[in-house]
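Hi U.,

Before I forget, here's the chain from the pilot set. I'm dumping it here mostly so it's searchable later in email.
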Amino acid sequence: MIVTEKKATQIDDVLDRMAEDVQLDKTRHERMISSYEAVREWIEADEKFFKPYKYDVYPHGSVRILTTVKPIGRDEFDLDIAVHLKYGTPHTPERIYNELRRRLNEHGLYKDMLEAKNRCIRLKYAGDYHMDILPGVQEIEYDKNCIMVPDRELGSWVSSNPRGYADWFIAKANLVRESLLEKALRAENLPADDYSKKKPLQRGVQLIKRYRDIYFQKNDSYRTSSVILTTIAGQFYQGEESIFDTVDNIVTTIQSRIGQSYGRLKIINPVNPDEDFTDKWDSEPEYYEAFKRFSIHLYNEWQRLKEDNGIIEESHIMKGLFGDELFSRAQTNQATWMERYRKSNELGMDRNNGLLTSAGLSGSSVVKSNTFFGG
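Structure:
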């Protein structure tokens, strides 16, 4: 745990380490970026269709907003890419989609990885990740983010705004300038590079998504989608400084809204008020019932964590929410971190309450380093 006398900061340290563990690792991230750059260059070099037009190719989704979570049971992430043609491109949605498909099929490697989806084309990097490429045309001249994307089932355009959504979420995450963990590190003169710079909202979304994967592991027929959970979190976030308080506020607000609603809870796209991310809950109400059970369970377990149950019971709750191995690795990481600072005589103990703190703080004494003989 982070060396501080406050229990809230100690809990945030555990949550931060678990969220760090489930996200896209550096090696995988670099490999995905390399694949993205290769696809972008291949599309831009197309002489038959794409080259004459002005367009952007950019990532969106969880990779862009830094909320990636490794799926349980399979070693595969997803990378969402948009091919965003600028305003005035005079083509039908079918033409845009088919030209993208044609261009990818011309590549010796991509043609065997390609899978046609309803609105995008997927490239499957076996056992590693897949890339969903969404073609679209800028919808309004004065709005650079709104795009129309082809929907093959509908046979027409559908309004979308993946870049605007990412900007909205990042702005919400940045409501807090400095997190509880960052403040504790600064106050205790400890190096900030021991923690990532992710905001509590980003960490909260990662943990809620991880809990979702645990909860629906045995039966994922009516699993709540990531975009719904991410949007709920962003809409209900109030600028909390701690990860724990962020999740607590989100799950508490969900329960309040469900209790107040005469119908189902609606989650509207914050950058497209005409799009209801939860419209499927009308045609298939089983999704909404599953969401309610899932959110109630998380709420109840989070309330238990707020009680003074002791370390053993708190560990049991954390393992139930996020998995035994993930929690155990977080404990191992924090123990290694503390031992490093103890050996350098930077770890202290508050003489008033016995909790670990920085050796330089008033009222603390240095925690001596262990040796083989205990000296």
